[in-house]
Amino acid sequence: MEAADRSIRSPHPLIQPRIYLVSGGMGASGEQLVRTLLAQFPESQALVINVPRVRRVEQVADVVARAADSSGIVVHTLVDAQLREALIRLAGERGVVSIDLAGELLARLSDVLGQEPIGRPGLYRQLHRAYFQRVEAIEFTMAHDDGAHPQGWPQAEIVLVGVSRAGKTPLSMYLSVLGWKVANVPLVRELPPPPELFELDRRRVIGLSIEPGQLLAHRQQRQRRLGALGPSAYSDPEAIYEESEAARLVFARGRFSVIDVTDKPIETTADEVVERVTRQLEVGRLVD
């Protein structure tokens, strides 16, 4: 334990301690455990470095060398017995502290269950693929809400475009729970649409239109909720009509498919969006 203490604290106070997390899969479970335990040390400046998809002894040797050069430690969740043994051996030769989060538990489970572990990395993620895909979709959608990170828009499976209060964010989140990676792009009054929008695959872009009267009601409700008083262009009927017309021109310019969301529940709109994008992509494949 003394060696472990020296490695974690680091002999040089100004050097950030490094914890190399080695896994044959994505390393999510091990990283969560390490970060959960690090929360018990609020003044710690330890840097957790995730090293996923380790499948060869050469990769193990490289991580051990990096840990030795930085006075770091290695935490691993390797289920491949050969790789696990190689890591422990190499770490011992280089004087690197290694902490095995999986080996002893696998051995105990093997005794209790009377079975040998198959040693296949990433198996839990494979068995729960739908769950992890849904989590990834939600994380992507949250990161690309309200026009954020345009460099990531090409990776979106669906891109929603529309004026403020057309329902882009709630619709995006609903679709993400269904497993779709969604970005939404606001069309802002008196600002040109982002040029990145017109570089996207238009089959994945959906314009959301809404009747000006209902849009006015949504915006007035938002202003009341925010405590905003007095007239403004945001809720001026004439300005809203002009804004809606400007959005229509953007949709036409990009040749984007348009869905009217007026008086529709979010479930109905989501079904329409998925059906429209799926159909457009299928037609594109047939044409190609």
Q: Can you walk through the features of this model?
A:
The structure is a single chain. By secondary structure, the protein is of the alpha/beta class. The chain has two domains: 126 residues, Rossmann fold (3-Layer(aba) Sandwich); 158 residues, Rossmann fold. Helices cover 49% and strands 13% of the residues. The protein contains eleven helices and eight strands. The strands form two sheets. Strands 2-1-3-4 form a four-stranded parallel β-sheet, sandwiched between helices. It has a four-stranded parallel β-sheet with strand order 6-5-7-8. α7 runs antiparallel to α8. 27% of the residues are buried. The N terminus is likely disordered.
What CATH architecture of the largest domain do you see?
3-Layer(aba) Sandwich
Reading off the top of the CATH hierarchy, the class of the largest domain is best stated as Alpha Beta
In total, the number of strands is 8
Morphology: elongated
Major sheet description: 4 strands, parallel
Oligomeric state, counting identical vs distinct chains: single chain
Integer average pLDDT: 88
Tell me the CATH topology of the largest domain.
Rossmann fold
N-to-C span: 63 Å
| Alpha-beta classification | alpha/beta
**Strand line-up in the sheet with most strands:** 2-1-3-4
How big a fraction of the residues is strand? Answer: 5-15%
Our count of helices gives 11
Quickly count the domains: 2
- Please provide the ordered H/E string of secondary-structure elements: HEHEHEHEHHHEHEEHHEH
Query: What would you report as the Rg, rounded to the nearest angstrom?
Result: 26 Å
Unreliable stretches covering 5 or more consecutive residues: 1-14
Helix content: 40-55%
